[in-house]
């Protein structure tokens, strides 16, 4: 894992990533299912004796994947994230609440407590600021008040200043505030919801960041995209002509899957098939949901997938030496540039 470099506001001290190869770790959203992602990364480290974050110049994570990305940026090893995230699932998605949610859908209020989620995240991240991350991070969210994309970014470019002052807890709340599951997060006066509504697979967001902020050529970008679990769902023909009531139970999973597939296809189109690697586990539909997942089953799926991923990771990603990350601003420093829409500063 990379150390905590000295922090400087002088742009001349920034060490640019290697343009010959720029490696991205992109982590999908998936609620409780994201425990699979954490297990995969932990098994990779255990099997290969490596530090996974040491192979990637940029980490992008949406929703639950964003929480994992924040953990990596905070210096946690994936095995610790597995332990922490298991506890989060048990407290945030209690089984009694799951049963109530399935039997009596909450039409007028969120299914789960944002206060409990904030409490658990506070125990994980404490008062640590986003700008204190040891890794370059991009974390998508959505501004419901302005109807615009909002992306939290570490200060890895002279333009990026304001987000460094926000706590990791607030960033985690914003990226994971899934509509109907949690209330919108209030961050810096903005009403933000789950980044999964537009970027559940953040691969394209990360590719765009590499090109726009670092000038990395598309052909130099390699992406490892780790999903949660790929659930093959058969949509009955009756929903083709159905209305709101018919689509209600199918719409969420369909939109999440479609958005992820679309981002995957676009990412492959941009960087090339040989430079994009995706891993998740194929399971039947309805085995897992955003709020219901068996820790033991996910650990078993991750063990199987990591056996496949280990040689691929060794061949495609392990030999890359990441350029040191020197943040462009210090948490607590005065803002030098205004924040532009979409979290660009």
Please count the helical segments.
Answer: 11
The low-confidence runs, each spanning 5 or more residues with pLDDT under 50, are 1-14, 334-345
Shape annotation: globular
Proportion of strand residues: 5-15%
On the 0 to 100 scale, the average pLDDT is 81
Overall radius of gyration:
19 Å
The termini sit apart by 26 Å
Q: How many runs of DSSP E, i.e. beta strands?
A: 10
Order of helices and strands: EHEHHHHEEHEEHHEEHHEEH
Task: Set out the fold topology.
Blueprint: E1 22-27, H1 35-48, E2 58-61, H2 64-73, H3 78-92, H4 95-103, H5 114-125, E3 137-143, E4 148-153, H6 168-176, E5 185-187, E6 190-194, H7 196-199, H8 203-214, E7 221-226, E8 230-232, H9 244-247, H10 251-271, E9 276-279, E10 282-284, H11 295-316
Parallel strand pairs: 1-2, 1-7, 2-3, 7-9, 8-10
Antiparallel strand pairs: 3-4, 3-6, 5-6
What would you note in describing this structure?
Helix content is 38%, strand content 14%. A hairpin with a 4-residue loop joins strand 3 and strand 4 (148-153). Strands 1, 2, 3, 4, 5, 6, 7 and 9 form an eight-stranded mixed beta sheet that branches. Strands 8-10 form a two-stranded parallel sheet. The chain is built from eleven helices and ten strands.
Features:
single chain, 345 residues, alpha/beta, 8-stranded mixed beta sheet, two-stranded parallel sheet, 11 helices, 38% helix, disordered N terminus
Quickly describe the structure.
By secondary structure, this protein is of the alpha/beta class. The protein has helices at 35-48, 64-73, 78-92, 95-103, 114-125, 168-176, 196-199, 203-214, 244-247, 251-271, 295-316, and strands spanning 22-27, 58-61, 137-143, 148-153, 185-187, 190-194, 221-226, 230-232, 276-279, 282-284.
């Amino acid at each position: 894992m990379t150390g905590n470099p000295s922090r400087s506001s002088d742009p001349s001290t920034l060490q640019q990533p290697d343009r010959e190869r720029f490696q991205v770790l992109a982590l999908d959203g998936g609620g409780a299912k994201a425990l699979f992602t954490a297990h995969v990364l932990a098994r990779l480290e255990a099997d290969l004796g490596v530090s996974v974050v040491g192979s990637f110049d940029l980490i992008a994570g949406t929703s639950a994947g964003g929480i994992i990305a924040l953990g990596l940026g905070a210096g946690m090893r994936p095995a610790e994230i597995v332990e922490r995230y298991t506890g989060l699932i048990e407290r945030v998605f209690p089984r009694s609440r799951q049963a109530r949610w399935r039997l009596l859908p909450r039409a007028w209020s969120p299914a789960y407590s944002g206060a409990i989620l904030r409490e658990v995240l506070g125990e994980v991240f404490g008062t640590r600021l986003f700008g204190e991350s040891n890794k370059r991070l991009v974390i998508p969210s959505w501004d419901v008040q302005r109807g615009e994309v909002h992306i939290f970014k570490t200060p890895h470019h002279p333009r990026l200043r304001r987000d460094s002052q926000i706590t990791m807890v607030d960033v985690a709340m914003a990226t994971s505030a899934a509509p109907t599951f949690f209330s919108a997060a209030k961050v810096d006066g903005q009403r933000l919801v789950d980044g999964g509504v537009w970027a559940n697979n953040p691969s394209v967001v990360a590719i765009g960041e590499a090109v726009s902020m670092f000038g990395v050529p598309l052909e130099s970008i390699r992406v490892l995209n780790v999903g949660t679990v790929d659930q093959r769902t058969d949509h009955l023909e009756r929903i083709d002509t159905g209305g709101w009531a018919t689509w209600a139970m199918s719409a969420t999973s369909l939109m999440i899957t479609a958005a992820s597939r679309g981002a995957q296809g676009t990412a492959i189109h941009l960087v090339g098939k040989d430079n994009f690697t995706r891993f998740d586990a194929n399971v039947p539909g309805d085995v897992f949901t955003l709020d219901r997942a068996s820790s033991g089953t996910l650990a078993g799926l991750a063990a199987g997938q990591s056996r496949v991923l280990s040689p691929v990771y060794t061949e495609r990603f392990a030999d890359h030496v990441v350029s040191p990350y020197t943040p462009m601003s210090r948490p607590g420093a005065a803002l030098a540039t205004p924040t532009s829409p979409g979290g660009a500063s």
